[in-house]
Amino acid sequence: MTADTRDLAEPLVVPEPSKTAAPDKGESTTRVGFNVLNAIVGSGIVCLPYALHNAGFFFGVFMLVVIAGLSQFTLYALVRTGTRTGTAHFSSVTEAALGRFGYHALNVSMLVDMLGTVILYLMLIGDLVESLVQIYAPVQVSRGVLLSAIAIVVILPLLFFRNTGPLAQFSIVSVLCLPYIIMVVAMRAPLYAGESSVNFDVFGPRILPAMGVLAFTYSSCHAAFPNFLGLRDRSIGNWVRASAAATTGATAISMAFAVTGFLAFGSSAQANVLMNFPDTDNWVNFGRLLFAVTMVLTTPMAFYPVRDTLTEILKIDPERHAVSTVYESTCTVVVFVMCTAVAIVCRDLGLAYELIGSLTASVINFVLPGLVYLWAGTDVSVGMILSRQSLESAPLLGGTPVRLTAWSLAKWVVAWMVVLFGFWIMVLGTYNILATA
């Protein structure tokens, strides 16, 4: 069996038994797939019509599919590199492949990106709940009070598990809310079509910022190892099946939302397309409620990587550093309260989506995973390709040699595409956003 097929069948062996739960405590491939799907389909979905207008309809649709494929590859590449390096943590595998520079680059980017994501989720919850209360409640309650109550009473208690496995049931509920939201946008949006211009241009007016939004929408690498560790049977094959199903589902959901919203609202599409609908539409208002529920249940999935990164930097992870859980819990409360406070003050979503996507999501989900795979996940190199050298002198784990096959070469090429795409968005996208802000 070649390494290219063997890596899908063999379990991943990691040198941290404390991080590896007993098989009977793990989750099925289906449940983990729901977790990954829930991690992908987040607040970015409501910004997709806005992104499609800025990218241009045809180019935007094309890039939505391309970015989905590249994102799926990075989910595979990270866990595959974990096989080669004997690690099962995003920061650990980055350090093993790229050294301390890669480790610090990941941590800084992760903190900015995930903190921004949590804040965006909370901003959406505040906006949606405030609009519903203004419409239906007999008394008026401020957005700050509503958001504070939801954050402390509902979300905060979900932030103290050891990993995301126990959140699987919440992820299923969250995902089951999405079909109605998609259908109500698809069915109600045509009623308001014609009020805004819809241009089917190949390229739009702000392509690079739109790519930042799409990169943000497919932010999922932070969920790779936590969800992989939640599998009952931790093989790369099961991980590929779970993550591929999640990516496919996320692409279908994103495409439906993006196209229907764009066809209805075109150039007037807001960063939260649900806000394009009038407050008198009760069908849409129920969709707003379900989306608020989805954001409430998704926020913990975005917060766990923040906590894991901070506790690793501060050396207060109770399992990795044998310290009291009090430090981790205190860190959780302090950081989440800070995120909530920022979300109460800030309300502009469009620029935040673009900037976070271009500046940090591109690094976390494309640049670093691609480099990690190229440096430590594969034996393929330019010199080897030019000389047509076999890889029999470079055995993998277990001492089994591999050859330079078409499949291994294809993965090497895709990895370079991932890296170049990430750099393109990070450098040019960020510059374009800041120059036009």
TrEMBL record:
Q: Which residues cross the membrane?
A: 32-51, 57-79, 100-124, 144-161, 168-187, 207-230, 242-266, 286-306, 326-345, 351-376, 413-434
What does the entry list under GO cellular component?
A: membrane
* Annotated membrane topology: Multi-pass membrane protein
The UniProt entry's sequence similarity note says: Belongs to the amino acid/polyamine transporter 2 family.
Q: Which organism is it from?
A: Linderina pennispora
Q: Where is the Amino acid transporter transmembrane domain?
A: 27-374
In which compartments does the protein localize? Membrane
Q: Which UniProt keywords apply?
A: Amino-acid transport, Membrane, Transmembrane, Transmembrane helix, Transport
Write out the GO MF terms: L-amino acid transmembrane transporter activity
What protein does this entry describe? Amino acid transporter transmembrane domain-containing protein
